[in-house]
Amino acid sequence: LWWFRTCETLGAVPGQTFAQAWSEFFDARVAGHTYIIGPWQSGLHSLAPGEAPTWSADEGLAPGEDPAAPRQALWSRRRHPNTIHCLNNVIPSGY
Predict the structure, then answer these.
(1) 3-state SS string over 41-77?
(2) Domain count of the chain?
(3) pTM given for the model
(4) Can you tell me whether residue 36 is helix, strand or coil?
(5) Euclidean distance between CA atoms 47 and 16, whole angstroms
(6) What is the pLDDT of residues 60-70, one digit of tens each?
(7) Which letter, b or e, does each residue of 69-88 get, where b requires 16 or more Cβ atoms within 10 Å of its Cβ?
(8) Domain range for residue 31?
């Protein structure tokens, strides 16, 4: 597993494309976020080689943003999808 603990790495269409390419190239599971992260880190997802993303391409995007050409994302919040706290160092099952 390689966990990109960075903002928006797996967000929108470019992030989903990156996740698939990275996991295939390195033959390893990849994890990352679809939101801007801080103490709360939302939109945590993972993908194994050969899998397709199961999360929406517009998850974490500001209203009206185009998932194919995103320009603005949302900040993580406690109640957003797949949120963990920055002190959590384990990816929950199913993420």
Answers:
(1) ECCCEEECCCCCCCCCCCCCECCCCCCCCCCCECECC
(2) 1
(3) 0.95
(4) strand
(5) 9
(6) 999 999 999 99
(7) ebeebbebeeebebbbeeee
(8) 1-95
Rg for the chain, CA atoms, rounded:
12
Q: Which contiguous run of DSSP H or E holds residue 14?
A: helix 12-26
Q: In what order do the strands lie in the sheet with 45-47?
A: 2-3, 30-32, 45-47
Check: CB of residue 19 under 8 Å from CB of residue 53: yes
Encoded amino acid at 62, one letter: A
How confident is the model over 6-43, as pLDDT tens digits?
A: 999 999 999 999 999 999 999 999 999 999 999 999 99
Tell me which residue has tokens 């990156």: 18
Burial 10-39 (b: 16+ CB within 10 A, else e): bbbebbbebbbebbeeeeebbbbbbbbbee
Q: What are 73's strand-pairing partners?
A: 61
